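Open question from group meeting: does this chain pack into something compact, or does most of it stay loose? Before anyone orders reagents, we agreed to write out a predicted structure and look at it together. Recording both the input and the output here so the notebook holds the full record.
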Amino acid sequence: MPPTRRTTAQFLFEADLHGLLKLDTLIPNALPAQWQRKAKESGPGPSPVCVSPVKPANRSYSSSKETERQMPSKIPGKSGSKIQSTPTKAGGDRYIPNRSTVQMEMANFLLTNENDPAEDSPTKKEQQKAWAVNLNGFDVEEAKILHLSGKPENAPEGYQNNLKVLYSQKMAPGFSRKNSRYIPSKPDQVLDAPEIRNNYYLNLIDWSSQNSLAVTLDNTVYLWNYGTREIIPLLQTEHPDIYISSVSWIKDGDYLAVGTSSAEVQLWDPEQQKHLRTTTSHCGRVGTLSWNSCILSSGARTGHIHHHDVRVAEHHVATLAGHTHEVCGLKWSLGGRYLASGGNDSLANVWPCTQGGGGDFAPVQTFTQHQGAVKAVAWCPWQMNVPATGGGTNDRHIHIWNVCSGTCLSAVDTRSQVSSILWSTNYKELISAHGFAQNQLVIWKYPTMTKVAELQVHTDRILTLTMSPDSTSVASAAADETLRIWRCLEMDPLKKKKKEKANSAKSSVLHQSIC
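Structure tokens returned:
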């Protein structure tokens, strides 16, 4: 049966469709290949090397719309240039440009010399440095801390390390931690002390528990109130040739003992400005005084020490004869168990407490290591059996002793005459005053005896020291006729707050127990 027109048209359509699927002929109205378009754009010249597309078996090309989607797009760049995309997937055309010899040499040069710092121009280095500063906040090259040689560089200014400490290490024995508290190098106040007697063996100032400073200027005693700054002349000797050789406050600050060059010991009431009594048991000037409750001990030029009970008429209750020359240093321990004395015979004696009665007593310890006069004597406030002594010009040493064993715990050469020693109650330190040749004050760390600070302001030798009642300041009297107040032992604010809180708690408990 002859095919109808419709059947023939349908057959032709299927034949064309089958031919298209087999890719036997070119697709009509299709876009030219990529290499053909590149050849047209480049104009006349050597034809590019190309590779014919591979026709995989049983695989057809996509439609014209899909071909347009897969073709690389042209994006306008700088100066009208065009950025080319990568070749299409498998089955598409792959374009390989023809590279000239000059271009290959240039590429090889850039690859081999890209990281060579010697070829960087100064302009390029400056640009890289600017980029590093903008990105990191500092120049990376200058922040390096590891080098093959030389010392490590310091971190840049403003650099902060936010890393936390994961572990700590104990310091090696003998290592001295740097002192962190502030110690002023200049005195807090300076007072004139005209006509102060330039004599190493005398003790001319003392600070009371009521914050009143007794100062001896030749034959006159002045009282200076540290709080109100008021100055009161207390006494003056009747004869101009008689001078004041020593002063000492009782513990509660109600009475002042005064020693004179005429071998007298006077007792005064500063509040009433009244002379209470005079004792005359010595035969030479009284250069040093020390209180133990109501017992007043006095050291004389004859080498004798007398105990006076100021409550009774027969005041002379004991005599200590352990020195062959003038007694210039005298100090009771805080508990009143021992009395330490130093003399011009280079001896330092420790005496037991005597409860009334006369007679002679022997010292429990006699230290003979000093080679000069021993004027500086002081007891440790937290070790009741440990005194410190200092020698004069021929000795210049500070010794720390153990009274129980009789041994020397520590000795240090100060290289200057030692005139006075005071222990701090706020720190484990002691401060010493010196004469020839440094004329300075030195704060020592105990027990290592390393220097914490040196205060060098006096222009002549320092004669003696005394401490304020709160143990934060010391007063130094020197032969340059000045009296200087130093706030060198002031307590750390945090430690002070804790101490005040503890004292407040103790007083509260005491008040509750009394009530």
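Observations to bring back to the group:
Residues 189-505 form a domain with the Methylamine Dehydrogenase; Chain H fold (CATH 2.130.10.10).
The two ends are 139 Å apart (CA to CA).
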